[in-house]
Amino acid sequence: MQNTYPACAFFLMIILTACSKRSALPPDEPFISREKIYAQFNYDWIGSFSEGLAPARIGADFFVIGRDGRRLFDNPYDSKRINFHDGLVNVRKDGRYGYIDRRGREIIAPQFSTGARFIHGRARAARDGQSGLIRRSDLRFDPIDYDWYTLLLGNRQYLPVVRNGKFGIMRPDKQLVVPIQYDFLLAHREDLLIARSGARSGLLNYRNDTLIPFIYESLQVNREGPPLLSAKKEGKWGLINLEQDVLLPFIYDEIYPRDSGRYFRVKKDGGYQFLNQKLEYWTDTVYNWVSPVGPETLLLMNNRQSVLLDLQSGQITPLPYSHIQHFRDGVAFLREGDRYGAVNRDLEVIIPPEYDRVQSFFDGLAWVVRDGQHYLIDRRGDPIHPEPFDDAHYSHLGIMPVKRGDAWGLINRRGEVVTEFIYDQIKTVDEVGFIVGKDRKNGLINFGGEWILPLEYNYLAEEKTGHILAEKDGKFGLYFFSGKPAIPLEYDGVRNLGYRFGSGYPAHFRVNKGTVYGIYNVEQAEEPPFRFQSIGSIRDGGMIARIEGQYGLIDYRGTEILPLEYSRMIEKEDYNWIVLCREKCGLSDRAGNIKIPLEYEELDFLQPAFIRARRDGRWGLITIDETVRIPFEYEELVISGGYTRVRQDGKWGIVNRFHETLVPIAYDQIGRVSDGIACVRRGEQWGFVDTTGVSITAIQYDGVRAIFKGFGMVEKDGKYGMVNDRGEEVIPIVFTDIKVSYDRPDGGDDPPGSVRSQEFRSFKVKLENYTFILDRNGDCAADCPPPAVLEQYGIKPAR
Q: What's residue 757's pLDDT?
């Protein structure tokens, strides 16, 4: 289907779309809760509602329902989690994106290599290697010639665009209203832009007027009410208004102005405190976890207590539970000791604390574990299946892989068996079904347990391009989610070249026969020429290729962008630049434009604005336009965590990117910088200094670990302790071992993923023959040794 229409057809489409909204959802149509829809219609899965519609499933049959739960139209597309915006939804079929309306009619046939949802009447899309926007008004595709662009959620008129690593703002008519000159732009409100230039942040409007000068290290703005900004200066945060009046002093580790228009959350000394709209403290107690319970209530927790904070009165109500998770489906799990139960939003116990592990509720169901057995329970705590399982995975579109003995099978949300318990493994494939394995063979089944690919492959894996990579009898190929072949099963290797959504390029794969490589374009579906010895990944432009030891840059068709005549090419992942070398090194973009001539001994691209370079044996820092930020006078130069460590005449110091000295060049070694504090060594002794050069501790320790989230470990004479970010010993240096535990939503001891988003909860320490728990204050919180031992080492029991 063409995506342009004559005027009369266009207006007819608009009328029909408006009618479809009324006919699908009459104003007086009753809303039925998800729980009642499940009960009344016996659906296996219901997705999220958007514009009154939601995807749903029974077996392998996917369709769309209205607010009353009735089936409205079928969903034959590969996209199952569909969400309507501006009356349309993007759908995918065999690797191509199109759009349907609220009556299921195909408004734009699948034709785009990428297609995002509509926001404010526009959608990001790409076709034939060209990125652009689809306009909701006439459904036309309008190309946009920038390295990167996105749609602003808070403002209907403007687009942030990027070219050569610099940000600007463009109107829909492609006129720039904010020139492309900033290192970063961020929109939090319809009328304000946070901008960064170099190492400083300021505030702009959409006319490029400077509202707050570029003098702060960082800025954040609230989303509701009069504009207020948390600003960072000299490593500390304060709160200011547009006139730069200081409303909260610059003494905080963090200020969160965007939590709500009702309160402010501030972080100091490792914990959180809360202020009302008048910036008055609600409580002097420090908490390290916060979760909304309702529109007027917050749940606050620390190591010692859980309380409720009423946002209207500021009243604090203590709770008898040590830990409560976030609410999901109106239920939150609580922890008492090592056991978990659940409470409702009235904080009434609805499931006693009797489980070892839990997962959050979703659509009224949750997995819990007791004595190694997995149970699927409802919000009353009643089991859905009469017998527990030996292992289970989280629900995927209403289907759950479960293990009984040594075999895996699938059950639905009612506990009914979907497949037999005969498989060695089951892996989820998003929006498609499951890869199942048995006797070293793999197949692909849909949500009804029906075969999409038979159980005969040695290897099956989901690709992020919306394909299934397969291997059989030593040959590789690719399938669409429908089971239709995308690349025939005849190559020695098939590898995704780095396609990502919004890149503007069709899905393309590197294929090889023996030791020669070609590029297979799935849209063309034809045999490529094989002439390369290696091919790198494509990222918004060209990719590095090699023939007989010579490197060059090619596009996704295999056409040369830069000739294959360079001795070395290095790409920096997630950046748009390539270091290329002959005798000397320079820099090009992925379009093949030389940005820095080949005049440097080494180049190391670090961030969008800065390049570490070596010339005449000395290191310095330059920008893309070769402006020298740090002169070429250092034996070594290392950038990490936003700080630049430099070595001169054998000594180390720290400078910023404007070559201002932060820590004098006077130390034998400088380790990691964290929380604005550096580990430093003189001779054989270590200590801490902040990034203004002020000593936090004396240089007196045998070893240290970087201060993180307010605490750093120190060692002296084989014993360990902890200091805080003010250099105070919060845990004495008397322990033979210290291990750290972190706060996390389910109360476990080990942080999920990166610990940088977590907070310290406690320390597990060893002293003499005792192992016990200290809290953040260094007081004994659990498994305490006899009082005499604690008193001997100056340790207090926790209150």
A: 38
For residue 362, the 8-state DSSP code is B
- DSSP symbols for 497-513: ----TTSSS--EEEEEE
Residue 369 has pLDDT above 90, yes or no: yes
**Distance of CA 423 to CAs 405, 455, 457, 697, 770, Å?**
11, 11, 14, 59, 47
- Give how far Cα 331 sits from Cα of 348, 353, 764, 780, Å: 10, 14, 31, 32
Asked if residues 501 and 537 have their Cβ atoms less than 8 Å apart, the reply is: no
Question: Residue 258: CA atoms inside 13 Å, Cβ hemisphere, count?
Answer: 9
Alpha-carbon torsion (256, 257, 262, 267), positive or negative: positive
Would you state the structure tokens that stand for residue 126, as one six-digit string?
């790409």
Alpha carbons 324 and 344: distance in angstroms, whole number = 11
% of the chain surpassing 90 pLDDT? 46
Distances (CA, A) of 411 to 308, 331, 363, 398, 450: 39, 23, 15, 9, 14
The C-alpha atoms of residue 50 and residue 56 are separated, in whole angstroms, by 13
- Condensed to tens digits (0 to 9), the pLDDT of residues 118-146 reads 888 888 888 876 788 898 889 999 888 87
Nearest to 589 by CA among 133, 124, 195, 146: 146
pLDDT confidence of residue 227: 87
> What's the CA gap between 696 and 698, in Å, rounded?
7
Nearest to 496 by CA among 507, 482, 505: 507
Residue 487 token pair:
């690349």
CA nearest neighbour of 140 among 127, 155, 153? 127
Side-by-side strand order, sheet with 459-463: 459-463, 467-472, 475-480, 485-491
User: To which residue do tokens 């849909």 refer?
Assistant: 446
Considering the chain, what is the average pLDDT of its residues? 84
3-state helix, strand, coil in the chain (%, to 5): 5, 55, 40
Query: What is d(CA 436, CA 444) in angstroms, rounded to the nearest whole number?
Result: 6
Grade residue 34 by pLDDT with cuts at 50, 70 and 90: confident
| Among 755, 773, 675, 793, residue whose Cα is nearest residue 254 | 675
- The DSSP code for 404 is E
Q: At residue 258, does pLDDT exceed 60?
A: no
Q: Give tens-digit pLDDT for 571-595.
A: 865 556 789 999 999 998 877 888 8
Laid out side by side, the sheet with 669-674 consists of 669-674, 677-682, 685-690
Residue 646: per-residue pLDDT: 96
Cα–Cα distance for residue pair 634/651, rounded to 1 Å: 10
Q: Answer whether 690's CB lies under 8 Å from 707's CB.
A: no
Strand partners, 392: 402
Give the DSSP H/E element, type plus range, for residue 233: strand 228-233
Distance CA 762, CA 774 (A): 6
Instruction: Check residue 569 and give its pLDDT.
Output: 92
pLDDT at 499 over 70: no
Phi first, then psi: give them for residue 788, nearest 5 degrees: -65, -35
- The answer to pTM > 0.85 is no
Token pair in block for residue 750: 């080990």
Tell me the two tokens of residue 366. Answer: 């949750």
Q: Please state, in angstroms and rounded to a whole number, the distance separating the CA atoms of residues 98 and 142.
A: 15
What is the CA angle 770-776-780, rounded to 5? 30
> What string of DSSP letters covers 173-200?
TS-EEEEEEESEEEEEETTEEEEEETTE
Q: Which of 2-6, 503-507, 639-643, 783-787 is modeled with the greatest confidence?
A: 783-787
Q: Is 544 helix (H, G, I), strand (E, B) or coil?
A: strand
Per-residue model confidence (pLDDT) at position 30? 54
The yes-or-no verdict on residue 217 having pLDDT over 70 is yes
